[in-house]
């Protein structure tokens, strides 16, 4: 199987590294000094499970060099998906599987605007990892897991085949009964903490310590549940409780990657998190005042980051 990993950040680097280590034909799309280091020395992964180093079959920033892949794993940010899909369109075949692992609730819909529906799978992942330096990925928390499935939740032959691929690469994976629900469960958690963290510029334990801020967190999550339910996603009270159990268990100093992007003045996933909720609410005639407040407060910073 020919596998293309588009984006060798914390997600693409870790899972792409595992697939290359298992002997699959892996191409990595990276850029700048990170690409130079991978081409020269291979990709190094430092993990809480085991450290390893791999040399991909090809590392490049030029898609014209890439053979038609059987599987594409998207390791870019959710706001980059549509541009990446346009770049992928000329090199994929009718049989190519495209698996998005981004945070966000509407990544599949974005892909469907550009790529044939039959190429697209739905997915997400759980991992805390990042690029520590050019050519090196550091995995610091969570047992890495990929959750994936067909958009219609059917148990297709290609889904069974992909599970075997992940199994051979020793990647923990899960095919749920309802992939859309799993995507929204993660979205509920990450969208709840990310932008309020970016707005307050403090770690999650500091937000927990403030009765006012913690109440805002809860209201943010409740509004997200409202939108999910209006769209037919069976997000329930038990899922909110589970999300807040995870929030309570985050160690002191924890921040989300979107929060770190906002604080560093980089383009973030604001539009795909709170912005998505606000815009879906307007379409559905639902009021989401907390998400709108957070979104509008951060929007000037986001616009400036994108202009720069």
From TrEMBL:
Catalytic activity annotation: (R)-pantoate + NADP(+) = 2-dehydropantoate + NADPH + H(+)
Pathway: Cofactor biosynthesis; (R)-pantothenate biosynthesis; (R)-pantoate from 3-methyl-2-oxobutanoate: step 2/2
UniProt-listed SUPFAM superfamilies: 6-phosphogluconate dehydrogenase C-terminal domain-like, NAD(P)-binding Rossmann-fold domains
Enzyme class: oxidoreductase
Highest taxon of source: Bacteria
Keywords: NADP, Oxidoreductase, Pantothenate biosynthesis
EC code(s) of this entry: 1.1.1.169
GO CC, any one term: cytoplasm
Molecular function GO terms recorded: 2-dehydropantoate 2-reductase activity
Gene Ontology biological process terms, A to Z: pantothenate biosynthetic process
UniProt-listed Pfam families: ApbA, ApbA_C
InterPro entries linked: 6-PGluconate_DH-like_C_sf, 6PGD_dom2, ApbA, KPA_reductase, KPR-Related, KPR_N, NAD(P)-bd_dom_sf
Ketopantoate reductase C-terminal domain residues: 178-299
UniProt domain Ketopantoate reductase N-terminal: residue ranges: 3-152
Functional note: Catalyzes the NADPH-dependent reduction of ketopantoate into pantoic acid.
Entries under PANTHER family matching the protein: 2-DEHYDROPANTOATE 2-REDUCTASE, PROBABLE 2-DEHYDROPANTOATE 2-REDUCTASE
Similarity field: Belongs to the ketopantoate reductase family.
Entries under NCBIfam families matching the protein: apbA_panE
Protein known as: 2-dehydropantoate 2-reductase
Organism whose genome encodes this protein: Salegentibacter salinarum
